[in-house]
Each structure stands twice: as structure tokens, then as C-alpha cells.
Amino acid sequence: MAEESNPAPDAPEDPEAALAACRREIEGLRQELAETNRGVVALYGELDAQADQLREATELKSRFLAYMSHEFRTPINSIRSIARLLTDRLDGPLTPEQERQVAFIHDTATEFAEMVDDLLDLAKVEAGRIEISPAWFEMVDLFTALRGMFKPILTNPDVSLVFEHPDGIPKLFTDHQKLSQILRNFISNALKFTPRGEVRVTAQRTGAEMVTFAVADTGIGIAPEYHSAVFNDFARVDSPIQKRLRGTGLGLSLSKRLALLLGGNVGLESELGKGSTFSVTIPVQLKAFESEGV
């Protein structure tokens, strides 16, 4: 009976061949890594170029808006001045129809002027050229100024504008003009979209260091699907009243940006057909200027 043959043991691996294989693998990995690094560098270069182009485009847009806003102001002011002269009847009496048409011209020019102001302010914010000038002031004084500002334009007898006395609100150290601009935008929108009822302006403490200002109305309200977009540039809510009224859709966007500059934020609560509440929450004392003290 033939003896079974044992299989021969595996031949030992050649160390030099194994080392050469490792070197080839390392070289391949090195080349792959170098190629990846070149791709990353190229990508960063492309991103930098796109960032430069974006900054340049933003700067050009801001300069264009600022230039056009300044250029528009002269003819707008001329139209408003002529309309006032005609309304004052310095050149003779007007018929009722002429008086209505002149009033329409004056109101339209005023709205146009407000649009131009919003565009100019937006251009300044985007270019980082808007200045914050904080100072200490009492809330009562701000509410009194706003009440006097809106009194002449409350032409709808079915709508009342109410300012609640700001009880328990300390002196604020912030830019009262920017805060006033935010509240003016909120109040103007509320009056515009409230056919009847009231617009109520309030202020209350939110924690130890914050104050929330709210403008609540009993107007048409805003559907939930528009809540996230109303503070965007040129935002327009799809409603019959919105379509009849003019505007750039910049007021709320500008208010949001101003609130951020004041160290705060804006908010919205609204239900279609039941009114809206726009709010702005800011620090009692603007943090960037805390060192100035009382």
C-alpha cells in the first residue's frame, strides 16, 4: 500500500518582495493624498473667489440702492411740496374732485418716500454702515412721541390706537431712534391691515435683562404658512387687502435687522381672521455699550 505524501509546507515569503509591495502601496496612497490635497486647495480657491464675487455683488447692490434712494428723494420731495401748495390753495380754490386727486398724489408720494427710506436703511445695514447711538431714556417719552406721530394719520374712525402705560419698565439704554423705527413699522402695518377694532402697543419685562414690546391688532391676521417668510426681504402676504396696498415689503425685514443690531430679536403670533401680534425683544442695556454706565 503506497504511503500518503504529506503536503509541502508554504514557502517563506520573500521579505524584499513584501517590502517592495508595501512601498508601492504607500506610494499609491501618497499620490492619492496629494491629489486629494490639490483638489481641496482648488476648492478653497474657488470658494474664496465666489466669496469675493458675492461681497462685490453685495457692495454694488448696496451702493446702487443708496445712490438711487438719494436720487429719488429730490423729485419725491418736490411732488409733496407742490401737492401741499395746491392743498393750501395758494394758487386758488380747488374743486372737490381736484382736492381728492391732489390728496391722492400727496399720499402716494409719501408712501414712495417711505419706500425710499426703507431701501436706503437696508443698504446701510447690509453695507455695515448704519450707526448705533445708544442713550438712556424713559419708555413713557417714547410712547408719547409715537402717539403724537400717529395721531394725524388715524383717519379710520373704526380703528383706535392704544398705548398701554409701561408700568415697571426701567430706563432703557439703547438706540431709541432705531427702536422707534421698529415700532413705527409694526404700528403702520397694524393700522394698514386692521379695517376695524384696535391696535394696542405694550411693553413688559422679559426676565431680568430684557424688555418685550408688542403691537397687537384685531386685523385680518396672517396664515401660518406665511409666518416664517414675513420678515424676509420683499415678502408679500397673499390676501385681498395686501394686493390693494402698496409697499416694498421691506419694513419687517428692516425691523428684524435693526432688532439684531440692538441685541434682540423679533417675533410674530397671528391667526388668519383674528389679528396679529408683532413683537421685538431687546436688552434693557445694550451689551456692547455696557461700559458707558448710567
Describe this structure in words.
The chain is α+β, with helices and mostly antiparallel strands. The protein folds into two domains: 18-130, Helix Hairpins (Orthogonal Bundle); 135-292, Heat Shock Protein 90 (2-Layer Sandwich), CATH 3.30.565. 51% of the residues lie in helices and 15% in strands. It has helices at residues 15-87, 96-126, 139-150, 176-192, 240-244, 251-261, and strands spanning 135-137, 159-163, 172-174, 197-206, 210-217, 265-270, 276-283. Strands 2-4-5-7-6 form a five-stranded mixed β-sheet, covered by helices on one side. A hairpin with a 3-residue loop joins strand 4 and strand 5. Helix 1 packs antiparallel against helix 2 (96-126). The chain is elongated and about 110 Å long.
Which helices and strands appear, and what pairs or packs with what?
Layout: H1 15-87, H2 96-126, E1 135-137, H3 139-150, E2 159-163, E3 172-174, H4 176-192, E4 197-206, E5 210-217, H5 240-244, H6 251-261, E6 265-270, E7 276-283
Parallel strand pairs: 2-4
Antiparallel strand pairs: 1-3, 4-5, 5-7, 6-7
Helix pairs in contact: 1-2, 2-6, 4-6
Summarize the structure.
The protein is of the alpha+beta class.
List keywords for this structure.
Helix Hairpins, 6 helices, 7 strands, alpha+beta
Computed over alpha carbons, the radius of gyration is 32 Å
Provide the residue-averaged pLDDT. 81
For this structure, the CATH topology of the largest domain is: Heat Shock Protein 90
- The shape, in one word, is elongated
Number of helices: 6
Considering DSSP H and I runs of 4 or more, what fraction of the residues is helical? 40-55%
Alpha-beta classification: alpha+beta
Number of domains: 2
CATH architecture of the largest domain: 2-Layer Sandwich
CATH homology-level superfamily of the largest domain? Histidine kinase-like ATPase, C-terminal domain
Helix-strand string: HHEHEEHEEHHEE
Share in β-strands: 5-15%
Residue stretches low in confidence (pLDDT < 50, at least 5 long) are none
CATH domain class of the largest domain: Alpha Beta
Distance between the termini: 113 Å
The spatial strand order of the largest sheet comes to 2-4-5-7-6
